[in-house]
Amino acid sequence: MVGNLKSKILVTGAAGFIGSAVCEKLLNMGFDTVGVDNLNGYYDPKLKLARINRIKKNINKNSNFEFIKLDLVNKTDVKKIFDFGPFEYIVHLAAQAGVRYSLINPMAYVESNINGFVNLLEGIKENKGTKHFVYASSSSVYGGNTKLPFHENDRVDHPISLYAATKKSNELLSFVYSHLYGIPSTGLRLFTVYGPWGRPDMAAFKFVSAILDGKEIEVYNNGGMFRDFTYIDDIVDGIIAVLDKIPISNDTYDEDSMKKDVPYQILNLGNSKSESLMKFLSIIEANLGIKAKIVFKAIQPGDIVSTYADMTAFNEHTGMEIKTSLENGIKNFVFWYKQYYKL
Ligand SMILES: NC(=O)c1ccc[n+]([C@@H]2O[C@H](COP(=O)([O-])OP(=O)(O)OC[C@H]3O[C@@H](n4cnc5c(N)ncnc54)[C@H](O)[C@@H]3O)[C@@H](O)[C@H]2O)c1
């Protein structure tokens, strides 16, 4: 249970796939929640607005939701967010996501993921009172590492995409603010999230949409890809489970001098099962009752072959276990997709 019901929580990226689901859950738990998002056009803003409408429609009468449209890149706007506070907890999910797009538009990543991140940290520093800053890092920080499963203590100095480099930078930046200003922070390395209200640039969405339209599906690395697919509800539960588990020391940091007094931690959050992309696709096919037209392609620059989360630290820290099987998760996604697009 997070704090008490008087705690106000800020969620950035509130119109996003994960952020909207986090807002909905917090509101249903009775927490007043402020959501911010710039509703950018990286993918269809109509889907983002529909997520905000969904939150407003399902709101628990005992809690209050305020949505503010603003860009975290704008320092003055970020300062204004704190007029809606004070925020005991902050869940920072706004970012320019996607590995492939970072090869096309690198500055979008620098702006939102670096400048926006520091603007928010500065706001937290100036306004004080935040008990815990929890933000989304990514499994992509493990880069080309081949030792599986990925453990938080593994070296992550060789990101292979700009997206990954910005996420690794977030971990470094939050360490600085925890060290200098005592801001308790947790970076969650999220592993391939899928489920209802998902992102159109990700595999589940792309596959279902192409199969239903009778279009070809490009499968990279000739199908030899493995992902630790993690269902949205498990991610939301994981984020909320970590909120009041405030770090008092950095258990995953190696240098003893820093270990005791920096309230900083990094945790994996994934299903801890590395599943083949072809299996993922075959479950989608089974749910749709249609065979995909597959075109095998070489691996794309920046792509990782396998991801697999070691969840020991997360489980010990929160006591939470991941519940959703790939079969159930995909079934729910396909059901939502057909309903959303009125098919
Ligand atoms: N979905 C995944 O599989 C996954 C995996 C690892 C990490 N993550 C991270 O989790 C977080 C949420 O991802 P998601 O899948 O919900 O993505 P998403 O794109 O659906 O959500 C991000 C939201 O942030 C908003 N945003 C972006 N830049 C902004 C800015 N400068 N100011 C205000 N709002 C801004 C976008 O409009 C969007 O609604 C991101 O930080 C992402 O990098 C996601």
What does this structure look like?
The protein is α/β, with parallel strands linked by helices and 343 residues long. It has one domain: Rossmann fold. The chain is 40% helix and 16% strand. The chain has 12 helices and 13 strands. The chain has helices at 17-28, 45-57, 75-81, 101-104, 106-127, 162-181, 203-212, 232-243, 256-259, 277-288, 312-318, 326-340; strands at 8-12, 32-37, 65-69, 89-92, 132-138, 185-190, 193-194, 216-219, 226-227, 230-231, 264-269, 275-276, 293-296. The strands form 4 sheets. Strands 3-2-1-4-5-6-11 form a 7-stranded parallel sheet, sandwiched between helices. Helix 6 (162-181) links the parallel strand 5 (132-138) and strand 6. Helix 1 (17-28) packs across helix 8 (232-243) and helix 5 (106-127) runs parallel beside helix 6. The longest helix has 22 residues, at 106-127. The radius of gyration is 19 Å and the shape is globular. The site of nicotinamide-adenine-dinucleotide has 27 residues, from helix 1, helix 5 and strand 5.
Number of helices: 12
Strand order of the largest sheet: 3-2-1-4-5-6-11
**What is the second-level CATH architecture?**
3-Layer(aba) Sandwich
- Structural category is alpha/beta
Q: Biggest sheet, open or closed, and with what strands and sense?
A: 7 strands, parallel
Low-confidence residue ranges: none
Count of discrete structural domains = 1
CATH topology grouping: Rossmann fold
Mean pLDDT, to the nearest integer, reads 94
Over all CA atoms, what is the radius of gyration? 19 Å
Order of helices and strands: EHEHEHEHHEHEEHEEEHHEEHEHH
User: Helix content range of the residues, please?
Assistant: 40-55%
N-to-C terminal Cα separation, in Å? 38 Å
CATH level-4 homologous superfamily: NAD(P)-binding Rossmann-like Domain
Bound molecules: nicotinamide-adenine-dinucleotide
- What shape does the CA trace take? globular
| DSSP, total strands | 13
